[in-house]
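[job 0412] stage=complex_fold ligand=adenosine monophosphate status=START
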Amino acid sequence: MTRRLRLAIPNKGRLVEPTVRLLRDAGLVFEAGERALVARVQNFDLDILFVRTNDIVEFVNDGVAELGITGLDLVAESGTDVPRVKMLGYGRCRLTIAVPNDSPFRAAEDLAGLRVATSHMALTRKFFEARSIPVNVIPVSGAAEVAPRLGLAEAIVDLVSTGSTMVVNGLRPLEEVFASEAVLLANSNALEQDGPAFAQVETMLSATLAARDRKYLMMNAPQAKAAELEDLLPGLESPSVIPLAHEGMIAIHAVVEADQVWSLLPRLKAAGASGILILPIEKLVS
Ligand code: AMP
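[job 0412] stage=complex_fold status=DONE, emitting structure tokens
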């Protein structure tokens, strides 16, 4: 009998929704109740544990869960070398040094001898040490952005995605300390023992993420235009070219980057394509 793997995911905060959506898009069927701590996946040997985002690295490292999804910033902050199986491309943010708008500081060096408030102590220390800038790192458990106003610190190091929280708090970014996104982690012992099951989960998530970024294009065109159209379609592999019943006409099928579709369409039409269909891809295994 195969062992059920445990996957720890955040139970609160901004990584919950995209993580649950990824697992559902991957085809896993489970109920994520408001207060449930564990959800049994009905169609795969997997249990999902809903835990605090901050505890996931430790859970995976200790083997409480064989797999986990959390922010790369928290993995780096923990200092553990828990295997990172796959970067997931969502939850993107930057750990950034910020200072009040009206402060004179222009570079990290200008903060020498001053106080920097952060909840990412290890990454902040590492950054300033690597640059040989002596600063006094002040730990805060959250809401670092209010620290300068409270007179707790001259600068902060905090996570930013759009930058709007900083603007609201009268702060401007100075330098990036660390770039983060969600990551799939694995327990190192389990990775050795349960290799095939891990590979299956990884493929499932990778195929789902890869499909989201691409579209399947189908179009008809005169045979004489095939080369010109193929040049416009640098897809995964060369496009499929299929003869149509109507003499001298072909159908071209290609996988293209989703964000290029709209700029591609007028060029395809100008090159002779007609009846262009844009289809979503459910899963893409490369
Ligand atoms: P939360 O539970 O909402 O505090 O989630 C924290 C995690 O979400 C962080 O450790 C980051 O990995 C990720 N994250 C993504 N974007 C942001 C952001 N703009 N601010 C804070 N955390 C973010």
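DSSP finds nine helices and 15 strands in the chain.
[job 0412] exit 0
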